[in-house]
Amino acid sequence: MRRLPERRSDETRAALLSSFASLVFQDGFENVSVQRIVAGAGTARSTFYEHFGGKEDILRASMAPFFATFADCVSSENRPDHLGKVLDHMWENRRLTDAIFSGASRLILARNLSEMVEARLRELHAGAQLTLPYRLGAIMIADAQMALVESWLRGRAFARHEDVGAALHDSSRALARALARTGVGRKGSAS
Fold it and tell me: Are residues 44 and 59 both part of a single domain?
């Protein structure tokens, strides 16, 4: 059984994340303040900072479960089991695409996703010489993933979520493998 302070801390964190999400979808990331988040969650400002370093940190935390699934596509031989659920959820909430895929929030999330992808690449190609530095390869893959998902959510072309999931996984894996195919012996390419 979980101790009461832990459970209360989890509930507070969940309330902060819920308040943040509501505000972002209502007013956009740029218009959300920590003060408004804590007011919506019924907590103190100091409590917010016990859980998050700031607005960027809570944005990353709110999208981490989704983007971790995208990052898993890089290193997972099979499509991640929960990829379909993530894409279903995003499709059902596509009217909120601008809150995630525009302005400062897109830049923050693209950086966050590329960091997750970089960690997967480092595990996948541990000690290997790559054609590009890990970070640059991760940025390439993360930007491709975000472009696919954003374009799909914005309705630029219709595709079933199963097909988007397959394309997301297969293209991420192919790009990750391509990074190790050539360039063996090049100096400084895997920094």
Answer: no
Handedness of CA 146, 96, 59, 105 (dihedral sign): positive
List, for residues 99-142, the tens digit of each pLDDT value. 889 899 999 999 999 999 999 999 999 888 889 999 999 999 99
Domain residue limits at 127: 55-181
Q: Are residue 111 and residue 132 in the same domain, yes or no?
A: yes
- Count of the separate structural domains present in the chain: 2
Q: Average pLDDT of the chain?
A: 90
Same domain? 60 vs 100: yes
* 95 falls within a domain: yes
Answer yes or no: are the C-beta atoms of 175 and 140 closer than 8 Å: yes
Per residue in 48-107, pLDDT (tens digit) is 999 999 999 999 999 999 999 999 999 999 999 999 999 999 999 998 888 889 899 999
Task: Specify the DSSP class assigned to residue 188.
Answer: T
CA distance 134 to 129: 10
Neighbours of 154 (CB within 10 A): 12
C-alpha 187/C-alpha 153 separation (Å) is 40
Of the candidates 173, 49, 29, 165, the one whose C-alpha atom is nearest the C-alpha of residue 106 is 29
Q: What is the dihedral of CA 140, 145, 148, 153, to 10 degrees?
A: -140
- The answer for residues whose C-beta is within 8 angstroms of residue 92's C-beta and 6 or more apart is none
Q: Examine the domain organization and report whether 124 and 148 are in the same domain.
A: yes
Query: Two tokens at 80?
Result: 């991640």
